[in-house]
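User: Please predict the structure of the protein below. I'd like the answer in structure-token form so I can feed it into my own downstream comparison script.

Assistant: Understood. Taking the following sequence of 204 residues as input:
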Amino acid sequence: MLPRLTALQWIILFVVFFFYGFSVFALTRDYYLRHPPRSLPNPQNSQQAPNDQNSALGERMRQALSGEPEDAQAQIDISSTDTDALGHAADRLFAARRFVEAIPIYQRVLELQPEDAETHNDLGLALHYVGRAQDAISTLKQGTELAPDFQRIWLSLGFVALQNGEPALARDALQRALALDPDTDIADEATRLLGLMDAAETKP
């Protein structure tokens, strides 16, 4: 038999569920807007993103969540000093997998705000996805030095290092991401990647 709740308890319960649903939506929207597909570009043609079904699905989800059409253009004056507008334009290009176009805009943001660790994170990932591995790692390392408690950038550094054959750096970065807060989606992904590394190392 269900417990009988007072009017105040029902109101509290409704508020809790409302904010829970809003939080899930916000986190999902942020993830698909700020993360590229898992598959990587072909090193022989690094400016072209992969075209498989998973990438297409991820792209459609990002478009639906962002409310932007497929041909959305990020119109921005690269000489602008408006870091919010620059960052928004770069993020739109990033979400559309137009990494080559996003890179100079992120670089412009860092000229204006050199201590912006989040932009270091996004620029590092964009550089990685166009095949500029060492530039990506260098940019992400700079971001970790600026914001050592920024969990996401440690995950990004670990992912990029792992994809580019630097397992020691990858393991250290992923372990740092996990240690910062083990109860997040970022920590779950760090755990998954560490598990893949462990499995690979134990294979005969």
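That's the full token string. The chain is about 70% helix and 0% strand.
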